[in-house]
Amino acid sequence: MSRSLQTRLKHLGPNELSKLEPVGFDSNRMRRSLPPLQTLVAFEAAARLRSFTLAASELNLTQPAISQQVKLLETRLGVALFRRSNNQIVLTEQGEYFSETVGEMLDHLSESVHELRPEGGRTSLTVSLLPSFASTWFATRSGRFTAHNPTIDLIALSTVARTEFGQEGADVAIRWGSGGSSDLYEEKLLEETHLLVASTQIATSLGEAPSLEDLKGVPFVHDTNFSEWRAVIESNGGNPDDFDRGQYFGDASASLTAIVSGHGVGVVRDVVAGHLLKTGQLVRLPFKSVKGPHSYFFLCPKGRIDQPRVQAFLSWLRSEVQYA
User: Fold this and answer.
1) What is the pLDDT of residue 208?
2) Is 288 within 8 Å of 235 (Cβ atoms)?
């Protein structure tokens, strides 16, 4: 920028400077050569939603306004961020790379704004959880997080879908699987064990040392999401085919409720049934258990792991796991 132009810009007032920004002048960041913030916000929304129309709806702007901001950003950077074809947009290789950087930058900026607010730095944390985990292990402990972190509002999203951090609004997630998410920060929290259990009433009727033969006369409650019950029966010398009849539930919470209600015996995961075993609503039967094939992992974008609210949540999870 020439010295004469710099001199003229210095003598312009805020109103005059704001009129220059839509045509490419960024008066607030001349020294850093950064694009105007509004172009980055528009680009991040369009990249995340893969649509100018959806981005416009989210930001309460018009579709042409989003398109203009993105075009201004591309001109400023000197690269194409999107390929446009048949009313569709696809991120270019440069666009994919830049969208991750901009998303992380806006996350950090949002976090800083939250911490500076006068209401004591109040903020929120949205956690994506599997429904069975959310309604059992997590729900029975979440109050302790709030008690130790009163300025963080905890929002739990229950879903079995794969977590898309840029689209569903989740800040962090806890997922069940084998791990190996190289594109995210990942930390193992819990392994799981499969146990044969019954209600107090049924356990009492079976006596202190029941055999698998004794169980054949009791309805068997199944969780259709898991087949480890077969391994439990086999590890105790039984034939799984003898126990494949009974009740089948596609939800762990429902199968647990059926067993607690005295409708049969069943194999459950210690992670989701732990609170019921501690309170005596479920009784572990004296049979060998089987270690599950997967574990529970904490996940979040790598650029978000150092945020104070995320660190507070992860620290709390570690303490809960230690004493689980």
Assistant:
1) 87
2) yes
